[in-house]
Write a structure and sequence with these properties.
333 residues; alpha/beta; seven-stranded parallel β-sheet; two-stranded antiparallel sheet
């Protein structure tokens, strides 16, 4: 899997946005300070990374990726022809081009953080009114990051799910839980009791509203997330690039030092939840994952030390990244 922050630009200033945090990239540099690419340089740069890594799935994020919608309209059909499943994650601030709907293996996810009483404050100018105008007639997924204020009112969760489930354009509703950095103190962080409440309520809502993707397995992953990036399937099996298409985001898409004990990433939870599923007899999916990572480690040893993913090298600390920013090596998995 591959994730690329295709631009440093974003017209929003959302509180709690990890991408613009001081620790996101490590090494004393922030996303807003990176050089940005556009035009042919961006198109060829992204396609080059994809051809090098040969991923099954690519997430194109930001910043706000729709700031580069012209370049994306050139990139997406090529990725589709390559057989790569692609996800574009947007705030909905810019209209989704209608022609994108014809591209196979493409999904657009619109981030909608709660009902208007919370979302419109957090994500202005990407308000409900603006989003509904920009997605009309387009098929998309809703990505919902749940923060603590959203669970303080009885019925809030169902009101949200009911609203978006009723929209014919919505294919799925994905749920994440706000994931803090280590030591972060924020009113958005859920308590253990809050997480337990979500684990009880969301699977029941998913039975009544099929567009909500939240199983009992996901509930358990929210209650018992990976202990560290080395225990996280998503962190181990993904490569993440920032806006200059060289700087790596480690140890996962959050960057910095995420508090894995409070992880709520939808993709991480989903992958973590399937580890115990049995494939044949005592053989579980986790056995295949472990074997794949071990093969990756072996192949990494055959390459130069600089080409190893930092999360696979315990000696590589966040402060060690500063020197690497000027000449980050690209890694094939």
């Amino acid at each position: 899997m591959l994730s690329i922050e295709i631009t440093r630009e974003c017209p929003l200033s959302c509180p709690g946005c990890y991408a613009y945090g001081d620790a996101h990239l490590g090494g004393g540099i922030t996303l807003s300070e990176l050089s940005d690419q556009r035009g042919d340089e961006l198109v060829q740069g992204i396609l080059g990374i994809v051809r090098r890594h040969k991923p099954l799935h690519v997430s194109l994020v930001g910043g706000e990726p729709m700031v580069r919608h012209r370049e994306l309209s050139r990139i997406l059909p090529v990725l589709s022809e390559m057989g790569v499943f692609t996800l574009v994650v947007t705030s909905g601030i810019i209209p989704i081009p209608m022609e994108w709907m014809k591209f196979p293996r493409l999904r657009v996810a619109v981030s909608v953080d709660g009902l208007p009483e919370h979302h419109d404050i957090r994500r202005k100018p990407a308000t409900y009114e603006r989003i509904l105008e920009n997605v009309e007639g387009r098929e998309f997924n809703v990505h919902w990051v749940i923060t603590r204020p959203m669970i303080e009112r009885d019925g809030y969760l169902e009101d949200y799910v009911k609203f978006w489930s009723a929209r014919s354009e919505v294919n799925r509703i994905w749920v994440s839980v706000f994931t803090p950095q280590m030591g972060e103190q924020s009113p958005e962080v859920l308590t253990a009791a809050d997480r337990a409440a979500l684990a009880r309520q969301l699977p029941a809502l998913a039975k009544r509203y099929p567009k909500l993707l939240f199983t009992q397995g996901l509930a358990q992953a929210v209650l018992h997330p990976p202990e560290s990036p080395r225990d996280c399937v998503f962190a181990k099996m993904s490569a993440n690039y920032s806006a200059d298409l060289e700087t790596r985001v480690e140890p996962c898409v959050f960057g910095g030092t995420p508090d894995c004990s409070q992880c709520g990433c939808a993709i991480s939870s989903g992958l973590h939840s399937v580890r115990a599923i049995k494939v044949a007899g005592p053989v579980k999916i986790d056995h295949f994952i472990t074997a794949s990572v071990n093969i990756g480690r072996m192949m990494s040893r055959l390459r130069s030390r600089a080409a190893r993913p930092p999360r696979w090298n315990p000696a590589n600390r966040p402060n060690d990244r500063k020197a690497a920013l000027t000449g980050a090596a690209h890694v094939d998995f």
